[in-house]
Amino acid sequence: MKILKTMCLAVIGVAGVIVLAVNGPMARSAEAKQTKVGSSVVDARGSLHVPEDYRTSYQFLGSWALPAETGKSVKEIHNVYASPGAIDAYRKTGHFPEGAVLVKERFHTATQQMTPGTVSHAEKLVGWFVMVKESKNVHPDNKLWGDGWAWSYFDSANPLKTTSTNFKVDCLNCHQPAHATDYIYTLGYPPLARAH
Question: What's the domain count of the chain?
Answer without folding.
Answer: 1
